[in-house]
Design goal:
The chain has 2 domains: 60 residues; 205 residues, Growth Hormone, Chain: A (Up-down Bundle), CATH 1.20.1250.20. The chain is built from 14 helices and no strands. It is mainly alpha-helical. It is globular, with a radius of gyration of 21 Å. The longest helix is centred in the middle third of the chain and has 31 residues.
Amino acid sequence: MGGLVTQHLNWTWIFWINVPVGLLLIPAAWRGLAESRGPNNRLDAPGTLLVSLGILGIVYGLIRANGHDGWGAPTVAGPMIAGVVLVALFVLWEQRSSAPMLPMRMFRNRAFSAVNAGGLLQAFGMYGVVFLITQFMQNIQHMSPTEAGVRMLPWTAMPLLIAPVAGILSDKVGGRPVAVVGLALLAAGFAYWALVMSPDSSYTEQLPGYLLGGVGVACFFAPLINLTMSSVDESEQGIASGSTSAMRELGAALGVAVLTSVFTHNGGYGSGASFVDGFVPALWVGAAAMALAAIVMLFAARTTGAQPQQPAEGEPEHAQPHAEPATR
């Protein structure tokens, strides 16, 4: 669908095409979703402002770095340094705030930290590679956007078939091993591409990488929500979900920026051989990120149920996340 819209309308229509979907879902959400409220209904305005501006600065710097500015330019270094400082101030503020938007004590929970770190690393590797593989298809192998989209279906459509199976499997054996296997498959798919990629690689040669990626994505995402929710108390599941989503979005921006930098450092768009010279090292970086994510996810919660933790000294019991005692 993305290829068809991009090729026959305009790439900006990828945003407009979601508008009618959202409008149709409004009455369904109004009728079908029950309201829920957490124990803290206060807006953490300073925390919201600090983290929003901090992430804005980091992402803006990353986007500018791979353009004409370069990593050392003031328009890159300035926003990124300011962003890091603001995020650090956000962490300090959250430790002092009486109603933090993201309580820092949640990261003392090993399972919660593992899910967030694993999600960031997975998005880092996957989105960086997806960006470059589509460039390879269209700029080096001269496919149209529609042709590229069709050839990516073994990756993008595979979750429709595998995710239900992965969900059933995660209910039986636990979400952690399924997610770890998914990340390992993604790492294997990227490593395979790095070994076989050449300017004239046939689609048949590339196909195993797409299949491994599709199965890997399905196996990772199917248990991710359960792993996130089971790592915290029910009253803090909204915070946990938001944190995991934000980490993945930040990982995607980092992945595209860093892997593109690896690509441009080693190759370029001048020829097919030059593109592959840059693409292969980027693929190895993506595979390494997936392998590291798999190791990190080994520390995620083992079960879908959560056990209460003992509250920290001086902290009210109802505010503590639930997790296995071993995750302390």
